[in-house]
Design a protein that fits this description.
This protein is α/β, with parallel strands linked by helices. It has two domains: 4-244, Ribonuclease Z/Hydroxyacylglutathione hydrolase-like (Metallo-beta-lactamase, Chain A); 249-392, Rossmann fold (3-Layer(aba) Sandwich), CATH 3.40.50.360. Helix content is 35%, strand content 25%. It has helices at 57-66, 82-85, 88-94, 104-114, 182-200, 204-215, 233-244, 262-276, 291-298, 317-329, 348-355, 375-394, and strands spanning 4-7, 10-12, 15-17, 22-23, 27-28, 33-35, 38-41, 46-49, 74-76, 99-102, 121-123, 129-131, 136-141, 151-155, 160-164, 221-224, 249-256, 280-285, 301-311, 314-315, 335-342, 362-363, 367-370. A seven-stranded mixed beta sheet has the order 1-2-7-8-9-10-11. Helix 1 (57-66) links the parallel strand 8 and strand 9 (74-76). It is elongated and about 80 Å long.
């Protein structure tokens, strides 16, 4: 990514990672990502807001050289995770006079993760300001977006809000700003929704509070640490307000695995019956599904139905993974049910139910068939569908 001017004295100096496809060794990122780092030059001091993932440190240093940075006064660390702060040690070697500016909790994390000496820090509190000369940085604490130490920075004169992971998206692009093209905006929307679903969704309650903080500021531009810059802040703010709301949609998602076709037959039947009843259904065959797309579907869906073959009396390992993933993400889903099949014995209902306790959902009576589903099993599936439809009507979404 070349050095690009955002505003007078404000530059993007970050790096695009075109090839990365998995983040945190957990979530797929099919469109790559960027590590956004921003340079703010005042008349007296120079500050760098966030760094880049350590393998990209040399590219960041090259960009700073291109931007004419011979001396660096401050490195602002919004978040201790390595994709934002991992290059700080290399920067301190190149600019030994620089101080790392962050909050007390983040300082502790950075010392643990990156072994940065305590004397290299300047600790700031909520609302404190740093004067660069004609450029004022105000630091605002936003804990649990998505770690306990996260903060954001408001550049008061230019009304730019540097939000770190907040409002980010894993997108690699040669563009700096979100364009007004409707197709590109749609692509950015889905990229940001995937990012929210995979990373931010467990912290929905905290995020709602921090959205109000953002709306209390006069913001012309939102510059996150991943993805493109929003020069129409309402676009991403409104999206986040929708995703974090308590409202669910008339949707059912069905992640499933079928070893020998029995569960697939049951899922197909349920999909057809729910569709006939006016419910939007999104089935995901876990043998080929993208877990990020499942997470995105969980953002809105009122109901989750998990389908599993029985393996050694328990759920299939892929179902175990998805159940644990859903439990960790804690979506606003209201209802859960389970469908499955077994040969000689099964405990899939008990085990899956135990795995999703953190979701705090109402369990609709599961249906588990012995072998291939028979007439009695299909009658039970009809009852399950009727129960889902009834629940959706009760909460006013159907």
């Amino acid at each position: 990514m070349p050095v690009e001017k955002i505003a007078e004295g404000v530059f993007s100096v970050g790096v695009v990672d075109w090839d990365r496809r998995v983040f945190d060794e957990l979530v797929p990122i099919p469109e790559g990502t960027s590590y956004n780092s921003y340079l703010v030059k005042g008349s007296d001091k120079v500050a760098l807001l966030d760094t880049v993932d350590p393998p990209k440190a040399n590219e960041l240093l090259s960009n700073l050289k291109e931007a004419g940075v011979e001396e660096l006064d401050y490195i602002i660390s919004h978040h201790a995770e390595q994709d934002h702060s991992g290059s700080i040690p290399e920067l301190l070697k190149r600019y030994p006079e620089a101080k790392v500016v962050t909050n007390a909790k983040c300082k502790s994390f950075l010392q643990d993760l990156l072994l940065i000496p305590g004397e290299k820090f300047i600790v700031v509190g909520d609302g404190e300001e740093l004067q660069l000369g004609g450029k004022t940085l105000q630091f605002l604490l936003t804990p649990w977006v998505h770690w306990p130490e996260t903060m954001i920075t408001y550049l008061k004169e230019d009304k730019i809000l540097f939000t770190c992971d907040f409002f980010g998206s894993h997108v690699a692009s040669s563009r700096l700003f979100v364009s007004n093209d409707s197709m590109e905006k749609a692509s950015i929307y889905w990229g940001a929704k995937r990012y929210y679903a995979e990373i931010m969704m467990p912290f929905r309650t905290s995020i709602k509070k921090h959205i109000k903080l953002v709306e209390s500021l006069e913001v012309d531009m939102i510059a996150p640490s991943h993805g493109l810059i929003y020069d129409d802040p309402s676009f991403i703010i409104d999206a986040y307000k929708e995703w974090t709301s308590d409202e669910v949609k008339n949707e059912v998602i069905i992640p499933y695995i079928s070893a020998h076709g029995s569960v697939r037959e049951m899922v197909g039947y349920v999909v057809s019956r729910l569709t006939e009843a006016g419910v939007t259904v999104k089935p995901f065959n876990l043998a080929v599904a993208d877990v990020g797309e499942i997470a995105m579907a969980m953002v809105d869906a009122a109901t989750l139905i998990v389908g599993s073959s029985t393996i050694l009396a328990g759920p299939h390992p892929m179902v175990v993974y998805v159940a644990a993933f859903a439990n960790a993400l804690r979506p606003k889903t209201k209802f859960v049910s389970i469908i499955g099949s077994y040969g000689w014995g099964t405990r899939i209902v008990e085990q899956i139910t135990e795995m999703i306790k953190a979701m705090r959902v109402e369990i609709i009576e599961p249906v588990v068939a012995k072998g291939y589903p028979k007439d009695e099993d299909f009658r039970k599936l009809d009852r399950l569908v009727d129960d889902v439809v009834s629940k959706h009507k009760e909460i006013g979404i159907l």
